Structures are given as C-alpha cells and as structure tokens.
C-alpha cells in the first residue's frame, strides 16, 4: 500500500467514526445481514427481497456481504462481487435497477466507510447528488421511445433503414419465442461462452443469473425474446428487466456461427423486444451505453454515470476545481508577464 493510499484509508476511517458508522463484512450470510436486509428493503418489494437474499449466497465467485450501522441501526446492507481488481454491486447484470438497500442520504458515506475499491457500472439514480465525493464518468445511454417517434425517419438519417429491412426479410422464417425457460438457459450459456476470457470479467455474474433469472421469469419482472429456427434451435435473443415503464436490457446472445448472409439477426431480435415491450404497455426501451451500434437504432435518452468509489483524502471535484483555478492563475500571471 502506498503512503497516499494509507492516508486515504485513514481519512475514510476518521470520517466513518465521526459519523458513528460501523462496518461488518462477512463472506457468509449472517443473521445480522438478513435482519438488516429486512429493515432496509421496502415493504412489499418481494422481487427486491428475493434478489438480495439470493445474491448473498456463495457461488464460487468471491463475494462480501456488507452491513453498515450508524449508532447501532443499519444504514446499508448489500452484497459485493469481485470483478477485475475491484468490487461491484452483486446486482450488476442480474438486476442493475435494484438499488443497494440503504437509508436515504447515507449511501455514499456507508460505501466509503468500507474502504474498498468499488465500481458501479451504471448508477440508476442521481449520481451527482448521491456521490458528491466520488469520481463520476458520464456516458450516453440509448433510450428508444416506443410511442410517438418516427423511427423510419431516424433510421434513414443514421443509414440503418436498409440494414433493418434486409434483416427483417432474411430472418422472416424465424419464430419469436418469449419468456421460455429453455431459451433463457440458452441465452445465459451463449452469453457466458462469448465473453469468458474478456477483460471486462462480466461473466462472474453467470452463476447468479442461473439461480435468480429462472425465478424472475415466473414474474412480470423479467422478459426474454429469442429468435428460433424452424427446427426450434435458438439463434439470437435478449434478456431484459422491467423497471417501471421501461424495458432495460441485461444481456444479448447470438449464435456466432450463423453466416452473415442471414442478415443482422441481432438487430431483428432487438426490434422484437420493442414490440414485446409495447404489447405489455411499456413506454421505453433502455439499451444501455458504450456501443456505437446502439446510436444507429435510437438516439441517446439519458446521461448515465459510472461511479468509482474509493478511499479519498480530497474529493475529485475539488481537485478538478483547484486545477481550474490554478490554470486561470497561471494564465493571468503569463499575461501580466507579457505586458
């Protein structure tokens, strides 16, 4: 540990003590963790309670079950999963719109008190308000408005119209299957095989997907859309989470052995998701961010944030402000020297 890292951790420990925070971390599911979840998950949120309980169970991927107490009362109860050299909320990929159970206004102090490097890939909340002391990386998330939007005009403007029409023609013989347990299992297996070994290390969530998603599929919370061949073989599809009026993309899967002459089967599967969402009365489809192909399908609809939670002596926004002020002062001195 470097001297700076040691000072940062010491600073976080001191802040935690001043706030009356105490941290309990365990790799197993303790009674204290279970009791904290019961207090912090909103009453009536049966899906959230099931997911958080299931995520706390070991899967072979390193996990930490965390409870943070303030003056003896729980203010945070969550499970973190190891990913690359950091930790991530265990809800990542599984059900990212489910927030970490916490008391309002205390999420950032509680996570900071852990003194662990944590990366939240896409924070579904007000990141600028909730994480004032942490480093935020903004990115565009692509949102399809499922009603009252002229997509033909938009697709023509992004030169996608011909590609979409060709994909629909060349995959016309495929059948659309919704919410089927066997195609869900195929999607998880195919997605895991495609990304195993990738530097993103996202497939660490796969054991949790196999435990949690089949149960969610029996509720309105999870929707799957898969294209299958006339012989019944799954070829491409998506797994999605319903969040209010929005269908949120979780994973996509595709048979990579298909010839390219069959058209963009992934695009066809994506657009079938839009139709499925409309059919159940949803208003939006959130494709997520980072990949440029999404811009060809729909314009950005929200600014999302990646949040880096780390022990810090000084908040990143204060460092940036100090650098801007120093730069202004330097330029002013240079102008004066020139005169």
Write a structural description:
The longest helix is centred in the last third of the chain and has 23 residues. This protein has an 8-stranded mixed beta sheet. With 339 residues, it is an alpha+beta fold. Helix 3 runs antiparallel to helix 9. The protein folds into 2 domains: 161 residues, Aminopeptidase (3-Layer(aba) Sandwich); 162 residues, Gcn5-related N-acetyltransferase (GNAT) (Aminopeptidase), CATH 3.40.630.
Radius of gyration: 23 Å
The chain-level structural class is: alpha+beta
Sheet with most strands: strand arrangement: 5-12-6-11-10-9-8-7
The proportion of residues in beta strands is 25-35%
* CATH architectural name of the largest domain: 3-Layer(aba) Sandwich
Elements, N to C (H/E): HEHHEEEHEHEHHEHHEEEHEHEH
- The helix fraction, in percent, is 25-40%
Catalogue the unreliable spans. Answer: 317-322
Q: Write down the CATH class of the largest domain.
A: Alpha Beta
Looking at CATH, the homologous superfamily of the largest domain is Gcn5-related N-acetyltransferase (GNAT)
> CATH topology of the largest domain, which one?
Aminopeptidase
What's the helix count? Answer: 12
Shape: globular
User: What number of structural domains do the residues give?
Assistant: 2
The largest sheet is:
8 strands, mixed
Strand element count: 12
Distance between the termini: 48 Å
Mean pLDDT, all residues: 89
């Amino acid at each position: 540990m470097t001297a700076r890292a040691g000072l940062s951790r010491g600073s976080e420990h001191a802040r935690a003590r001043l706030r009356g925070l105490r941290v309990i971390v365990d790799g197993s599911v303790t009674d204290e963790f279970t009791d904290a979840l019961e207090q912090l998950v909103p009453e009536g949120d049966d899906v959230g309670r099931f997911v958080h309980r299931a995520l706390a169970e070991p899967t072979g991927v390193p996990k930490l079950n965390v409870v943070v107490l303030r003056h003896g009362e729980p203010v945070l109860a969550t499970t973190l999963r190891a990913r690359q050299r950091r930790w991530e909320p265990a809800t990542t990929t599984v059900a990212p719109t489910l927030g970490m159970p916490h008391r309002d206004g205390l999420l950032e102090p509680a996570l900071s008190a852990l003194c662990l490097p944590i990366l939240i890939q896409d924070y579904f909340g007000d990141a600028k308000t909730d994480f004032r002391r942490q480093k935020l990386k903004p990115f565009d998330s692509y949102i399809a408005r499922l009603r009252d939007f002229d997509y033909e005009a938009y697709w023509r403007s992004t030169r996608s119209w011909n590609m979409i029409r060709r994909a629909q023609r060349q995959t016309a013989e495929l059948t659309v299957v919704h919410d089927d347990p066997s195609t869900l299992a195929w999607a998880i297996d195919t997605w895991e095989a495609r990304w195993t070994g990738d530097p993103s290390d996202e497939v660490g969530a796969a054991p949790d997907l196999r435990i949690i998603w089949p149960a969610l599929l029996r509720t309105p919370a999870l929707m799957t859309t898969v294209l299958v061949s006339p012989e019944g073989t799954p070829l491409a599809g998506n797994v999605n989470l319903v969040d209010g009026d929005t269908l949120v993309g979780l994973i996509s899967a595709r048979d990579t052995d298909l010839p390219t002459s069959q058209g963009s089967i992934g695009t066809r599967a994506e657009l079938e998701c839009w139709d499925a969402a409309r059919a159940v009365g949803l208003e939006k489809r959130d494709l997520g961010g980072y990949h440029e192909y999404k811009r060809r399908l729909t314009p950005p609809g929200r600014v999302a944030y990646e949040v880096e939670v780390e022990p810090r002596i000084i908040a990143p926004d204060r460092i940036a402000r100090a650098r801007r002020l120093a730069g202004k002062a330097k330029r002013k001195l240079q102008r004066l020297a020139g005169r």
